[in-house]
């Protein structure tokens, strides 16, 4: 006689979900569940702020405990954060500064940007206990699960955030490979994580950190002065040709790092936190038809489609606004567009484009 094979019972939450699914919509469930616990939802990833820590005068780290619908992240990745601000939902992308959960929490570090609605809200108004909408993690500049070889991290300004997650991940592994971090900021007071980075360098012989100041003189032994240059890198980094490089910062910084190192090192990968200046200036207007709503708008050339649509009162989904996260990706069924960062034309009749970094060249039909 064959033995009876028992199918494991479904977890209570899954059984309850199957029972409720035909009876209640996710939106209704989320509304009533939030009255009991704001971090409960049917399927939306949410996170509760459990700790705030001031990093500098204009930046703060928020430790967030995600609910079970968030799928986790790898060091170097980003996620979209959304919050209701004065009745309007605002979404932006932030790098995780600690991607591996510590006591069930991950962290983001936010600089309060002048005019930035979400960054100012998170920096000044968000409090412990508040619940934020989380997007799933994204980004291709990620630390391998088992790093090998020698590494060089180059950070400028807010570009330290994804690299800090990688440094912390390597530290959890005992700093298994040689790693040098060179971190640029205008003034000493703008460096985030300086004490932690120095403590890690003192604890691990494999880890070397240098702080580069562009508007102050270096004083400490691990400080230097000046913008990124070939002379600078040769002075600060040994065995440069054997390094695998990750660089992150403003567009101009990343562009300089690439031109200096891409042909000299084992590998080079970078992300820019601000787009490069537009390389094309075009005048005139085009007709943009929104297929889903049936509207036709007159929009300017030379301006990102996202900004042009927002100026008309529309609110397409958006996140990073730099062409990284794909939140604003939209189908195009007719017309030609131009990538405002590269100047490249795209005239395929049926394609997808990112609204935040593309402008209209001809009349368009968008799947909006």
Automatic annotation (TrEMBL):
Q: Name one Pfam family in it.
A: NAD_binding_1
Q: Which residues form a coiled coil?
A: none
Which Gene3D superfamilies does the UniProt record give? 3.10.20.30, Nucleotide-binding domain of ferredoxin-NADP reductase (FNR) module, Translation factors
List residues of the FAD-binding FR-type domain: 42-144
Q: What InterPro entries does the record point to?
A: 2Fe-2S_ferredoxin-like_sf, 2Fe-2S_ferredoxin-type, Beta-grasp_dom_sf, Cbr1-like_FAD-bd_dom, FAD-bd_FR_type, Flavoprot_Pyr_Nucl_cyt_Rdtase, FNR_nucleotide-bd, MRET
Show the PROSITE patterns listed in the entry. 2FE2S_FER_2 (PS51085), FAD_FR (PS51384)
2Fe-2S ferredoxin-type domain residues: 286-368
Which SUPFAM superfamilies does the record cross-reference, listed alphabetically? 2Fe-2S ferredoxin-like, Ferredoxin reductase-like, C-terminal NADP-linked domain, Riboflavin synthase domain-like
Q: Which cofactor does it need?
A: [2Fe-2S] cluster
Q: What is this protein called?
A: Ferredoxin reductase
What species is this protein from? Pseudoxanthomonas gei
